[in-house]
Amino acid sequence: MQLFLDTADISQITARMEGGLVDGITTNPSLIAKSGADIMERIAEICAVVPGPVSAEVVATGFEGMLEEGRRLRAIADNVVVKLPLTTDGLKACRTFADEGIPTNVTLCFSLNQALLAAKAGATFVSPFVGRIDDMGGDGLGLLEAIREVYDQYGYETGILAASLRSVTHVEMAARIGCDAATLPPGIFDSMVNHPLTDSGLKAFLDDWKKTGRSGLSQG
Ligand code: E4P
After folding, report:
1. How many structural domains comprise the chain?
2. Alpha carbon of residue 185 to chain centroid
3. Which one of 55, 72, 73, 97 is most buried, by most CB atoms within 10 A?
4. Is residue 219, in this structure, part of any structural domain at all?
5. Whole-number pLDDT of residue 218
6. What pLDDT digit, counting tens, does each position of 99-133 carry?
7. 126 CB near ligand 1 (under 6 Å)
8. 123: left (phi > 0), else alpha (psi -120 to 50), else beta?
9. 148 falls in which pLDDT band (50, 70, 90)?
10. Distance 78 CA to ligand 1 centre (A)
């Protein structure tokens, strides 16, 4: 499963790029606004340090405007994925970009029908918003399972990008369900490595080693 960071904060991104664990980035208008940066400049900065897919979202709501903005975003770098809202115009723009070979991420997906339409529109990724569904008393993980089942049943190649994840358990479940990618706030990404038994086990190993009087692996 690909792991993306869900942020437009360049320092948060650069701090996590070493080690090869981050496969890409997702942004949205709220995240860009929060960063205070110009969207074109920020997406260029991100693409300069991230070789994988970088989702950049249009803010136009009409078909022609989406095409114009999507093309401008895509011109920034070859790894830009044009992010489009799951609306009638967004799906139409998705089909146009798909026919042109431009990768897309159809976002704000909250139902199986919407995911089905995104696949039929040729989306590269569909982004179901797990946390926001849970916030409304729904079953976000259940939606991921349903999309996986239907995509597999019909052989749709659209990647399921689990989004709006709020916990490490969400990440584990997205992986078990067979999502193709998950996008995580940096804090949740950092938490994935943590386990108290790793910490206590390492402490015990090092305490035992210290008792030998050796400082490192050499005998000196
Ligand atoms: C995904 O593409 C979105 O940017 C994001 O995951 C939304 O998450 P939120 O519901 O925490 O805002």
Report:
1. 1
2. 9
3. 55
4. no
5. 74
6. 999 999 999 999 999 999 999 999 999 999 999 99
7. no
8. beta
9. very high
10. 23
Is 219's pLDDT higher than 80?
Answer: no
Distance CA 80, CA 56 (A): 7
From the CB of 127, is ligand 1 less than 6 Å away?
yes
Q: Tell me, yes or no, whether 193 lies in a domain.
A: yes
Helix (H) or strand (E) holding 127: strand 125-128
Query: Which pLDDT does position 58 carry in this prediction?
Result: 98
Question: What is the distance in A from the centroid of ligand 1 to the CA of 31?
Answer: 9
Q: What pLDDT is recorded for position 114?
A: 98
What is the set of active-site residues?
Answer: 83
**pTM (predicted TM-score):** 0.96
Ligand 1 centroid, distance to 168 Cα (angstroms): 15
Is 111 a member of any domain?
yes
Can you give the residue range of the structural domain that contains 182?
2-210
**215 in a structural domain:** no
Q: Which atom of ligand 1 is nearest to the CA of 107?
A: 2
Per this entry, what is the length of the chain?
Answer: 220
Assign residue 52 the CATH number of its domain: 3.20.20.70
What sign does the dihedral 22-58-119-146 (CA atoms) show? Answer: positive
